[in-house]
């Protein structure tokens, strides 16, 4: 029996129509009018101040989810009752054609996108004023152009469409999963290229350049987020983005970088030795973090409570740091005192999709419990969701020093042993994992076993 490949899936169209139906169903179940019209606008093409250079374009995720279209200045409607999805394209501008060529035509759009009708955007307002328009229009507040009029609609609802898309995005279709898989494959090649180059490179920016080159060469020009290329103690800064420091006399490199394909992200972190071989202390911390990640991934399946997985990561960290002597005392007392948060301050992971930190996680950043405050996903994980698993242990003076002065937490930290580990900086390992009914599928093939990474780095 033939196996369906990523390439086979991506030969088809992005499932915009299926996504529109999901969103419409959610709106109806949430009390919305069945006789409704969904209205969305693409991001506008913008220019930098004081010159005629275009800003970098990034499509609105809400628009893309119901269109699969990355073009600026477009519009979209979906009639919930008739199941008709219509895309409106920028009209031909003779002056612009001289510089940029002909825009996409309606006929080409019908071939390329999963829509029923395609027109130029001068027909948007007439279509919204037609005699057969639905009773209610659903749109997103502050994403409606001034020239657009909803006068003919009896009801205007700006409250349901945004959360509908955010929640529906959590469970991915096969097409979306294929996009994320492909982005992971491209990012893996780029991570491996950096591993090969790290021993001969002199500066973080060289390695960032190598990563970008490999992604662009493989068809992923956009990055899902700004790369983190952190050497030495800079790896203790969670979102370090300077990427301009020299590598000499530093132990490790933390590379957190991921390509984006058709608006879908990858998000991968690897930590490896700049010399090609881990120092004793670095290897000890790496082994703990790898155990944290592997055990947490093994826990994943439909219905698992993400808070519990996150707490399990902390317990593994505590056990490992106790064995090294960095922590001391009873492990349960350490856990209850939240002392481990000084070494693992962030959440275990987040949903991944059209955004690196994707929607639908129900985070609670006002949580008074420091262990869960920065957890971007709360509650149970559904089958079909893609989540990152990215535990870490960091030696950040800004976070640990207050713990050393705290009358409760300081009792559990051995400051003398700790001194041997400051130069490790930070270790984080991150994969993208698909949650299934009975388990999970790891979408990230990037090497992370020590022997595999050292073999790559040492030729």
TrEMBL record:
Its EC number is 3.4.11.9. It is an enzyme of class 3 (hydrolase). Keywords: Aminopeptidase, Hydrolase, Manganese, Metal-binding, Metalloprotease, Protease. Signal peptide: none annotated. SUPFAM superfamilies: Creatinase/aminopeptidase, Creatinase/prolidase N-terminal domain. GO terms for biological process: proteolysis. Its cofactor is Mn(2+). The keyword Protease applies. CDD domains: Prolidase (cd01087). GO terms for molecular function: manganese ion binding; metalloaminopeptidase activity. Residues 14-146 form the Aminopeptidase P N-terminal domain. It catalyses: Release of any N-terminal amino acid, including proline, that is linked to proline, even from a dipeptide or tripeptide. Catalyzes the removal of a penultimate prolyl residue from the N-termini of peptides. PANTHER family: XAA-PRO AMINOPEPTIDASE 3, XAA-PRO DIPEPTIDASE. Belongs to the peptidase M24B family. This is Xaa-Pro aminopeptidase. It comes from Microthyrium microscopicum.
